[in-house]
Amino acid sequence: EPYIPKYLEVKYTEGSNDKKWSSRDFPWTKKLEADNKKVFGNPSFRPNQREVINATMSGCDVFVLMPTGGGKSLTYQLPALICPGITLVISPLVSLIQDQIMHLLQVNIPAAYLSSNMEWTEQQEILRELNSDVCKYKFLYVTPEKVAKSDVLLRHLESLHTRESLARIVIDEAHCVSQWGHDFRPDYQGLGILKQKFPTVPVLALTATATMSVKEDVVQALGLANCIIFRQSFNRPNLRYSVIPKTKKCLEDIDNFIKKFHFDQCGIIYCLSRMDCERVAEKLQEYGHKAAFYHGSMEGAQRANIQKQWSKDEINIICATVAFGMGINKPDVRFVIHHSLPKSIEGYHQECGRAGRDGLPSSCVLYYSYSDYIRVKHMISQGTVDQNSFGSGYGRSNVATSGRILETNVENLLRMAWIVLKCLRSLLCNLIHFGEKFESTNCRKTCDNCSKIQKCIEKDVTEVAKQLVELVKMTGQKFSSAHVLEVYRGSLSQYVKKHRHESLRLHGAGKHLAKGEASRVLRHLVTEDILVEDVKKSDLYGSVSSVLKVNESKAYNLFSGAQTMRLRLPSSVTQSKLGKFEATPAKVSLTSGKQSPPRTDPSAAPQSPVDTNL
Ligand code: ADP
Ligand code: MG
Ligand code: ZN
């Protein structure tokens, strides 16, 4: 019996191509259009909103994949107004819930929420109201742990259901169900109980990020057999992406960039650690910007205060960990800067997605350094990434050690490393949104990597790779990559002499190579796991030092001839005197076949990698 993964059995229908759902002849169409204008003040519907509403109001289970800011809330808020009964909304963060409820109350729609950290008497009062014959609420928002852990709530929902008053179940930020996603919340996995208990109540799952595997996971975990899927393009034409090598002058660069292109405008700077947030904010204040920091270990009130000042434009720039952002609804964010490498490409896309929601041109700048890559990798392996991300209650420490998650996170990060090499737009679209194909030729140089096109050449670097691995062994597997490279290039520094490296057979073996070539190969060896960076925190500020080690089992393939290594290098790099090379069309060979590379149009012009120093 061949093993068939369970998710292959899940059936679903593509809703986006079915004309039925865009019909204006549903019994509720008139009321729908009227309420959209009258209650919510929207002149019309945005892409897929009408379709999703029609499908969920027809009683189908629906999975919606719509970019951040696309207007997902309306797709359950309007049906809730039109249908009798109450709509249950599961949302991951209390701050998100409060934001939603505030908006609903502003337009006079009664809504309530339950969360574990509310006073018990307050919870009782809401539950009592749910039990009354004419419940005044149209919405009940809950955090997922409420569903998983509160029998009281389930009993009340059952009672609502028997009175035919449970109109719809909405799972907001549904990607949190999946361990493959970037925001996994264990409590989301318990939500399958809802479909089991209330099989006739339509479920609406909403998310802005879902890879193929995330979507399968969500559909599976929630028990959405035969659901209809709506999705739309995730390309954001008004965002301009760039990747810039990070140097010691990074903060000066950021200051210049903001003053030159976005002076006095609103922006977010994502940092890796709390300490980074505070340092970056302080520096920007010195440069005269209205900046503040925001991270998970701040008091709730303090965070709320910063958010408020930001929405009122009293603060322009927020230096934050990823804790800042979910549900941020500011339309005029003109720039999102990543001061460090994000931990996954999904996360990167979502964070960038907070820029330019009003459709006006906005910038997304990523500062990339190899040492940040190593730093994030270290944080992932230590399970410390997510403690920075969310306040108490949402840490994933209980699962951080599970192999699958660790692997997924590292793999996600690896894909992040590709970001310096390819059309950023196609990379984001193709990798994230199950099957949306965005050809890099359509980018028309609106991303940095495309606009800096240089001729790229594919080259066999197997020999260089072997020499580097050998050199790591010769020097005793106790030096940093920078040092190994120095020896390879034939440096005669005091340090090299002191360790008697200059007498080694491979000292200077890489002399003939073009600048940057050896370091690229070395970095590739690390991303391929043939060399391993043994990382240690070296100071309070989170800077790390690392020592290269050889992963013998992987290195074996290289030396036995089972694996060759080819890299695309910009032609300036391949101008080496001895290297044999041939020109080939752009083809990703960064991975040696074990991961499927992102699809690209092979006829597209090759792109140049950004040169980043070790
Ligand atoms: P999402 O949850 O998809 O990120 P939201 O539901 O929070 O997005 O909506 C983002 C913004 O778009 C909100 O300010 C909302 O009022 C606005 N919006 C939603 N639908 C429409 C529409 N049809 N026309 C105009 N504005 C809309
Ligand atoms: Mg939303
Ligand atoms: Zn591009």
Automatic annotation (TrEMBL):
Keywords: ATP-binding, DNA-binding, Helicase, Hydrolase, Isomerase, Nucleotide-binding, Nucleus. The keyword Lipid metabolism does not apply. It catalyses: Couples ATP hydrolysis with the unwinding of duplex DNA by translocating in the 3'-5' direction. It is found in: Nucleus. Residues 586-611 are annotated as: Disordered. Its cofactor is Zn(2+). One of its GO terms (biological process) is cellular response to cold. Coiled coil: none annotated. Residues 589-598 have a biased composition (Polar residues). Residues 53-228 form the Helicase ATP-binding domain. The keyword ATP-binding applies. Belongs to the helicase family. RecQ subfamily. Belongs to the disease resistance NB-LRR family. This is DNA 3'-5' helicase. It comes from Nicotiana tabacum (Common tobacco). The chain holds residues 412 to 1025 of 1184 of the full protein.
